[in-house]
Each structure stands twice: as structure tokens, then as C-alpha cells.
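A quick aside before the break. I want you to see a complete sequence-to-structure record at least once, exactly as it would be stored in a machine-readable document. Don't worry about memorizing anything.
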Amino acid sequence: MSIPFRVAALGGRVPVTLPMTEVCPTCSGSGAAPGASFSTCPECRGRGFISFGQGGFAVNRPCPVCRGKGKVPSERCPTCGGSGEVRVEKRLMITVPPGTEDGTRLRLKGQGTKGRGDVVVVIQVEPDRFFRREGLDVICTVPINLAQAMLGTRIKVKTLDGRRVMLRVPSGTQHGQRFRLTGQGIEKNGRRGDQYVEVKVEIPERLTPEQEAAARAFAEKAGLRY
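That is the input. The structure line, written in C-alpha cells, reads:
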């Protein structure tokens, strides 16, 4: 099942709908219509299985007529068609622990078919539009303009828990440079990662004549070749 990135990182409860096989509520699993009588199965003669030879060996398999019950009803159940089982959708709430990774298997005890056995749910973590994960650390990319990169600035950055913290970007920041927000990553088994803010310096695609003249003047004063 797919869960949002932040639920996987922070933990939470999510609903899941599972197709299950349950005992037919009309016939209680007998396969017979209400008021129907039973007689010995003519195919297996009441044994519930049939035998056939294969490679010199006798192999038994459940009788296809009575489905291994040894008896057949005079009238089959209209709800399940005589199988004694119906397909239903079971809605459950799953607790996702913090730090859950893609491919994690969660076992739901006692939730198997007819209340027997367990159900194993394989988690698929959906990608997030802002965060990505590296171990217990989370990475986000924030755009800044050329002036902010050259002169420095202060920007607000969103954290996993939805808060916004102030980050100081020093002058001379390079494209792709990372800044760490300590303790703002994913917590798991007593350990907590950090959040890394990766800056993306955006360069203007077009300049006005005045802006181009200013850029050329700056390049000449800074000794930059172009």
C-alpha cells in the first residue's frame, strides 16, 4: 500500500481496505440454501476427496463437486453459489511507525482470511514534492536569486513537522551548496537525522538593456571574463 512521505517519516495511522474471504453469512459456510437438505456426494461417495493415478502413485485431491465436504445440498446457497465463502472488503487502520522506509513489511496479526493467520502489508512510500530522504536525513531544495547568493540573505524553510525556521544564507553562496538544520530529520530507534537545505541559484533568463549594462560593469570591475 502507498502512504505519504511525511506519514512514513513521522509515523501515523492510515486506513487500508483489504479484499478478504469470509464465511458466507447466509449459509454459515455450509453452501446450502435455507431449508435445503443434504445427501451423500455422488462423485466422491461421501469421502470428500477423489483419487487418481499419476506416475504410478495415487494422488488425492478435494472433490470438485462437494468441495471436500462429502455432502451436497439439495439447493445451493443463492449468496455464495454453494462455496460457503464470500469476498468482502475489510477496512482496517494501520499504525505506521516513525522512520518507515519503502519496502517495509507490517504484519497485522489475526487479520487473515476468516480471522485466521496474519496479513502482511508491504509499504510503498510516495515521493514528496519538497522533501527527499537520505537515511535519517531529509533534503530539500530552495531557490534563491543571484543577489541573495552574492550578498547573503535570510530565508524561511519548511521542516518535516510543518514549522518554518529561519536560515541564514551567507554571502558568496554557491549553487548546490547545502546548509544543515540540526535535529530536523527523521527520528528512529532513538536516533534523529538532520535536514539539509540545498540552494538553487536562479539566474535571470533575460535582462533589460539597463540590467545588462550593470552586469557588464560589475563583470569588468570584478575582473570576470565573458
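Two observations worth writing down. The chain has two domains: 1-26+87-127, 131-222. The CA atoms of residues 27 and 34 lie 7 Å apart. We'll return to this after the break.
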